[in-house]
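Before we proceed, please read the two lines closing this message. Report back on whether the structure tokens fit the sequence:
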Amino acid sequence: MRHDRPRWFRVARVRARRFLARFDRTAPLWLVWLPSWGVSLLVHGVALVILATVVYVTNQPRREKEFDSTIISLADQDFSTLVPSDQVGDPYTEATSEKSPSISLSPSDSGISQPTMAADRDFTPRLAMLNRSSNSKLPSLSDVVTAPKIHAEDMTAPFSGRSGASKAQLIRREGGTSASEIAVQNGLDWLMRHQRKDGGWSLDVRDECKTPPGCPEDVHVVSDTAATGLALLPFLGAGHIHTQPSRYQEQVRRGVDWLIANQQKSGELFLGGQIHSQFYSHAIASMALCESYGLSKDPRLAEPAQRAINFIAQSQNKYDGGWRYYPGAEGDTSVFGWQMFALRSARLAGLEVPKSVIKGCAHYLDVSSCDKHRTTYSYLPGGLPKPTMTAEGLLCRQYLGWTQDNPNLQTGVAGVWADLQSSNERNIYYWYYATQLLHNMHNKAWRQWNPRVRDGLVASQMTTKSCDNGSWSPFVPEADVWGIRAGRLYQTSLSILTLEVYYRFLPLYRNDDPKKNDEPAPKL
């Protein structure tokens, strides 16, 4: 034995010999007689397996709060053949139907062309997290449908297009681009930077500006409720919720908590400001609560969201079915539209809406229409037709059950499209509604309008090294009709929501015949 070796080496060699001696006595016969090269191969194979496992584990991506870049890369691929158009859409009709209301009465109640419900379809998903009592004071819209109930998991998830592969597919198939998605993220980043420490937002963002020269516009509308709702909706539209890790999880959580903390006992969410902003503010914030609940299924949000919807229902004018500046006031179409969309978000989330309220909505649209065919709409009943109000009114008609081939709808949409082509006015409020209206139709008018509004919004987004980076200015490249009063947060939020039209809600109409998507809007 050589004694010039280190002591640890001699000890290790003795222990190795003892181990091999025991191994000879206990190992299987085939392993004992394994040749030396076989032992070497076995040892190296085990080592390679261990090394591969270590490399795999150490190279797994961390779940950091970063933008999902796969959405952009997937958006540049062709998904048009992966998801047939008759397999996605509004969850309240048969999978093969081209007719799909979202919130409506039965045909006998509404007096309009209403698609027949499948016998095995529920009118709306009943989320398991919402534990309703049998003696609820507010009847469900599903009460007007005699079809038997089924579980929510048997329905298409109404918000399922906002995340994952479904989102990527819809971006590509419905007309989005990687540039439009980058614009959405940059806009969300701007909203994130301008959130207040208490979790809410203000329409006047100057106090939150950190990088000179900031966002200097003066704002003439005061409503923290409207600002917080407008800021939350784009985050929710992109699929960010407070219960799942994401880049904006914390911002959404704080914003939702702010709304709940400031809700009044009556359910109202308006905190104060000009009287004309009261019901705009409440409806926008109600939409945010309902969508947050519908996306997250957080039972903590069910009761506040339901109370907010109850306040809308109780405040409807009993004669014309509309809403305006205070509870019970005779309606105007602009305020009416926001209440309608809050009610729709509530139904998508599985909340209760009274049948009588929806009947009142249909009545208001009748009295605010300007012609016997109900193709144009005015700001106030009895007034002159307005393009913006027509776009808003027709979108409401779509959600109340007018089918894609309804001639009155087609004529009205043709008028909106004609006005959009001739108008040089910058009006994000109009574009927001018109984009949804045309997207639902999915005809040639949509295919022509989509690149115009999409690329125009992408090009006009601020790309600077200042605080305004990612926002949309209400003054540049030209003054917006309402943005010059409501401010940069208003302008930015509606711009983002317009760019999210591809996936924020699933396609309303589902066609078996793809040629129908190429039909032009009829001429007036």
Observations:
- The longest helix spans residues 36-58.
- Confidence is low (pLDDT under 50) at residues 62-102, 104-155, 517-524.
- The CA atoms of residues 93 and 117 lie 6 Å apart.
